[in-house]
Structures are given as C-alpha cells and as structure tokens.
Amino acid sequence: MQGARALLDDAPYDAAVLDRMLPVGDGLTLLHEQIEKGTPLNALVLSALGSAEDRIAGLEAGALDYQTKPIRLRELVLRVNVMAKSNPHMDITEPIALGSVVLD
Fold it and tell me: How would you class 76 by CB atoms within 10 Å of its CB: exposed for 0-12, middle for 13-18, buried for 19 or more?
C-alpha cells in the first residue's frame, strides 16, 4: 500500500479504481487519506466484497461508484466515462495504459 500512497503523493489523478482487499490494506483507507489531505479522489471501488453493508461503506467513504467482481471490462470503462462526465477537469481523450491493459 506504500506504493499506492507514493503514487498518489507524486501526481494528481483524475480517477482511481480501488480494491477493498489489497495485500496490505484496504482501498477505502487510501480514499480516506486523500480526503483527509484535502485532495479528494474520484474513485470507483471494485471489490469482491459485495454485501449491502460493504457497498454502503464504500459510498460513505467517498467513492463515486462501487462495483462487485467480476465485472466486464466494457462496463468498467463505461463507469469510468460516467465519472469523467461528472468531472470537467478529467480528460480521457487519450488511451489509458497500465501495463498490458489499455483503456481506449
């Protein structure tokens, strides 16, 4: 989770997809830390934890959306696009690449 914190501290992100069950922590903790720092993060939580209580906790923590796994890639892309439309500063006109995954 230190790596994720370092990335969030290095540069602003228009959006993030966070998982609830990271190897050494919870994505909601990262979201809460960003809010505490005064740098809110447009986040979609994508998690295997899918009870009503889990989804409510994610939304109450400040996530814009909460989806359970498995999710189709097309649906994930559409949900990120919806987040983009709600954030006029978010520019996703260029493909987004993360390793071998490219969102276009």
Answer: middle
